[in-house]
Amino acid sequence: MTGRQNVKFIARIHGDGEKVKDIIKYVEEFSEIGEAFDEPVKTYSSGMKARLAFGLSLSFDFDVYLSDEATAVGDEVFKRKAI
């Protein structure tokens, strides 16, 4: 499955229609993996997988977010955005 398909699969658990579209758009923009979003996740580097997973987790409204190494991936701009 592609990054987009994975995000859609999870997003459908939490909503439908516009909510799913909003989550997909948010994760695509937040993860900053470009065209790879539509490529199979099995081709992603570990950093790309972490960005996708971190973006997906932030797309849901929780009271508290616990993060360890997910914020350690990527360049300085991404790290600042993740914090």
From TrEMBL:
Taxonomic source organism: Staphylococcus pasteuri_A
Protein name (database record): ABC transporter ATP-binding protein
Lineage: Bacteria, Bacillati, Bacillota, Bacilli, Bacillales
Domain of life according to the entry: Bacteria
SUPFAM superfamilies: P-loop containing nucleoside triphosphate hydrolases (SSF52540)
InterPro entries xref list: Bact_Polysacc_Export_ATP-bd, P-loop_NTPase
